[in-house]
Amino acid sequence: MTQSNQVGWQEVENLLGVRVDRRGTYRVHDGVPQRLHVDHTSCSGCSVTPEEWGYDPERGGGCHECGYHGRRVERDWVPLDAEGKFDWDAFFHVDELDLAS
Ligand SMILES: [Zn+2]
Description:
20% of the residues lie in helices and 28% in strands. By secondary structure, the protein is of the alpha+beta class. Zinc ion binds at residues 43, 45-46, 60, 62-63, 65-66, 70.
């Protein structure tokens, strides 16, 4: 059964035995500590707007997908490695990990 519990940094430090960023937002997902990673990206729905329209390439022209802001906020729960850092390898290979377990 998949279980996720939002936890404080203290619990993550207890789990990993290392110091972690106290500003982070953490949870434990299936026993694996994860940290919320927030990224601002250009909207995939409208960032391909032709340059001649005069839009900033980093910012879409606006569409219903992004609420006409041209930018989107992506929130991802990323597993932490043994040092309490974002473990992007594990994040991008979640499916393989699931198969192995
Ligand atoms: Zn958009």
